[in-house]
Design a protein that fits this description.
Layout: H1 16-19, H2 22-29, E1 33-37, E2 42-44, E3 52-58, E4 61-65, E5 73-78, E6 83-84, E7 98-101, E8 105-111, H3 112-121, H4 123-152
Antiparallel strand pairs: 1-8, 2-7, 3-6, 3-8, 4-5, 4-7
Helix pairs in contact: 3-4
Length: about 160
């Protein structure tokens, strides 16, 4: 994993507890169990099966992208209240990025199939989850673009948002 710290955008991704109603948070948290990771532990690798996801309680997780011939490039960092992993929501459920604990991390871990079943039974939860994950994806797309420009573009070729 890259040792340099990726830039955080001024507008941070929306937190789990701010994106969903207390009822929806409670329904989801009923499916969660705590999972802890030591600094340097891999949560998942790009290309692997996306059968779960996490909401960070404490610590930070770096999302990275494989770069042939180089170390993986960290394109975003998730902290407390933030989502780690979105590929569980889109068939064929394969990770588009990798993730590694940058510090000791405590998370709520969710079984993706169980959450998709809960969503199938509750259209309001489905709508809230899609809005939340959509906001996370939009933020991460912009963040990844900026980070990759910082790492690989000729000086002065990118623009800051």
């Amino acid at each position: 994993m890259s040792t340099s710290s990726p830039h955080r955008l001024t507008s941070s991704p929306i937190r789990f507890d701010h994106a969903l109603s207390p009822e929806h948070c409670g329904s989801l948290l009923a499916l969660a169990h705590e999972a802890n990771f030591d600094a340097g532990a891999r949560l998942f690798n790009q290309g692997g099966h996306a059968g779960r996801f996490w909401v960070v309680r404490s610590g930070s997780v770096g999302m990275d992208v494989h770069v042939p011939g180089r170390q993986a490039a960290v394109v975003e960092t998730a902290g407390p209240g933030e989502l780690v992993g979105w590929s569980w929501l889109f068939p064929p459920y394969t990770w588009h990025f990798g993730a590694e604990a940058m510090t000791p991390v405590r998370t709520d871990e969710f079984d993706a199939a169980a959450v998709r079943e809960l969503m199938d039974a509750d259209p309001a939860l489905t709508s809230a989850m899609w809005q939340w994950v959509g906001q996370v994806l939009a933020h991460r797309l912009v963040s990844a673009r900026i980070r990759l420009l910082d790492l690989y573009a000729p000086h002065g070729s990118g623009s800051r948002i």
